[in-house]
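Bug #77: duplicate submission created two jobs. Keeping one. Sequence:
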Amino acid sequence: MNTNIESTLAQGVLNPIFTSEDGLNAMDDHWWIALESALQRATDDPAVRAVLLSARGRAFCAGANLIGMRTSALQQGFEKSPLASLIKCLVSFPKPLLAAVHGKAIGGGATLLLHCDLVVAAVDTQFRLPFTSLGAVPELASSFLLPRAAGSRLASELLLLGNTFDANKALRAGFVNELVPAGEELALALQWAQQLASLAPNSVQTTKRLLREAQQPGLSAVVAREGEALVAALSSGEVREALTAFLEKRRPDFSPFH
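Kept job's structure:
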């Protein structure tokens, strides 16, 4: 089920809104292309001073659409895939990027937040990085960004165990700047975005660039390594078992693998 991204522009803030019929807003090639398109529009349009990501439905983003991954361009390689293009866009995006998060932020729906400058989340939001339970690997440069935000111990816990964690742990891990009561996350994130849009644009963008340049060395190499590992994982028996288990509504059995 495709997720659409509808964008509105007001007071210098572009607001791409994730929307899907099931309310889970899962990622696939269509999603990655649509988000990159929205970010490219923001980069090129001087009227856009800040970008605020938000969503309708039960989740901010429930991660990859497992069924859709069977026909994803990733099956043919990473470098020319929509995911690779989106990551490059996120890494180089010059304007403030914010997110208002509610419900669930799973997999890429959580690691996407590591590319945001400011994130507000509802206090009842649930987070999860379920890569190892799916036979997959981290993406969106999270193996590089998360240890720097959370510290190596907490990053290892979240990425290796893949357990669900609450918004307070997400705050401690650096996914989130501020927690608010459910339903109030969009208002505060929009307030911050409008404040940024009212400030001197060159000053804001230069400040963002200076903050990001400190972590740039090595980032491109990590993105490439993650991409290669993800493509390899998608063709593995472990992922096939995870997908079969998902369709059969059971826990995957990884015991035959070594």
